[in-house]
Amino acid sequence: MIHIEFYTKEHCPLCDDAMALLEMLQKDYPCTIDMRDIYSNEEWLEKFHLSIPVVNIDGVELDCQHISFETLEEALQKASENQKA
């Protein structure tokens, strides 16, 4: 199963949109989503505060400027292929 790290914060419309895309893709790519509130960890806050949402799929990190249905699907497809290999 694919593991996704999803860096987010409360009251973030972009995060809500990214989560909706992940939930749609979850039907085709079985995965677990680890929600990580950046305000719960100083390191995450420092690293991601200007770029959330951030999605990490099997080492592929996508920030708010690069998250789309297509980019998420591509990363999930690669992660799926890597697990089969």
From TrEMBL:
Which Gene3D superfamilies does the UniProt record give? Glutaredoxin (3.40.30.10)
- Protein's name in the database: Thioredoxin family protein
Task: Return the InterPro entries for the record.
Answer: Glutaredoxin-like (IPR008554), Glutaredoxin-like_YDR286C (IPR052565), Thioredoxin-like_sf (IPR036249)
